[in-house]
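Reviewers of the previous submission asked for a worked example of the structure-prediction workflow described in the proposal, so we include one complete record here. The input consisted solely of the amino acid sequence. No template or homolog information was supplied to the procedure at any stage.
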Amino acid sequence: MQNAKDSFYMALRSRLMSVNPERTILLRGAVRPGILVEEAEASVGQLPTDVFVLRWLGLGVDLDLGTTMVAEQCEIVYQTCGTQSFGGLDRGRVLSGMDEELAAMLQPFHTKKLNYSSTPPVAMLTSVFWDEPGFAPVVIQRDKLSRTASVTVYSYQEQGE
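From that input alone, the workflow returned the following structure tokens.
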């Protein structure tokens, strides 16, 4: 499933650069698109604001098909305090903008599966696909608004995976 997870993340990352190239994060001294995978980063006490954080949850396997299909739940968490220029009073607008960005990043609901364990990445035979996102209600924590969206990511297992 690692190739599918990597391919999903890289597809969203490249789509974010098209949707909003100004949504970035400074991470380990490098400016990157504002999306990261929680399990691939150092543990932090609080999630960063104004970025999308991918969190991988449960895994399922369907062995009844001609080829094994795996599915993993991806939770996408994002939060904002609004902008300084508006004293944070625009946090609802900023969160709505992030909702729209995420919806745009997730379409189309598929991408080519690549193996990122080598450079350059190697194209595999199958694709990665996912369902429509489910958006949870807004959570208010003092000056922060946050939301979680959830999608299930599917992939057929290939030989050697």
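The CA atoms of residues 75 and 150 lie 5 Å apart. We consider this example representative of the routine output the project will generate in years two and three.
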